[in-house]
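Discussion board: Methods & Data

I've been asked by a reviewer to show the raw model output for two of the constructs in my manuscript, not just the figures. I'm not sure how much to include, so I'm pasting the format here to get opinions. Each protein appears as its amino acid sequence followed by a line of discrete structure tokens. Is this the kind of thing reviewers expect to see in a supplement, or should I convert it first? Here is construct A:
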Amino acid sequence: SAHLETGHYFNPHAQRIMEAKAAGAKLIVLDTRLSNTATHADFWLAPQPGSEPAIHLAIASYLIRERRYDRDFVRR
């Protein structure tokens, strides 16, 4: 979802995103449209509509294969 859309000043998610960016975090946005959130992104990926699930599965596959996840959290 686009957390930085209209009224984002009242959205706690938007505030945390902007605070993290100010602290040096990189924002990667996967959105088919150039949303307000995407305009703040360090990297914006605009996939063809309907292809998002395949991209999410590819990311999940990479994270699992490379063991780039919190195993203790997943076990719980």
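Construct B, same format:
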Amino acid sequence: MTGQRVALVTGAAQGIGYGVAQRLGALGHHVALFDRDAALLTQAEQALRGEGLDVSALEGDVASDASAKEAIALVEKRFGRLDILINNAGISPSHGGYSQLVEDVPLEEWDRVLAVNLTGTFYMCRHALPLMKARKWGRIVNFSSQGGRMRSLLSGAHYAATKAGLIGFTRVLAGQVGGHGITANCIAPGRIDTEQSRSFGDTDTYLKQLPVGRFGEAADIGDCQDFRVWAGG
């Protein structure tokens, strides 16, 4: 992959999304930062521009098909293309740091977690794919979690269901788009040191179970994502 590409990162105002956007910007690509938190989004845009990176902010909610469509349309209008889509946006209600019993999960919370974590990725992909297919090149990276691969004592059933669903979704997507010069990959991190993960509490007990003795950092994910974006040329 050579030259500047155009990337869009969801949930880019903080945490993993911010780290990924920072890494893509450092590689010389333009990065559209998509997030629903206007204040944090502005701070992220200013901070990354302060590092000399080529970024722009897009306020919106991945859980809205109309918002996802508008974000992709704005990128197309400005650049005429979208090369890289990073679906990172996600939520995981903490409830004191422990997984809720299934029967205790409020219906509205279940619906919101599915809408953001799983359906939002579907919305973003369905609107981005026509642009990528037209250019016969694209890279899609969807963020799952270890919570989608094994039982988690911290995350609820709704979070686990969405993250497992993303793995299956990405497998099907990869098979459908490969012939168009597009790759689709999934990254499933363990616990990363973000504001969201710190809300789960009892970090000392969790840290004792980790051979390296520390949580992952957003920069670690950026390095992994580099490979996924570069894979296949």
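Answer (T.O., handling editor elsewhere):
This is acceptable in a supplement if you add a one-line summary per construct. For B, something like: The first helix runs from residue 15 to 26.
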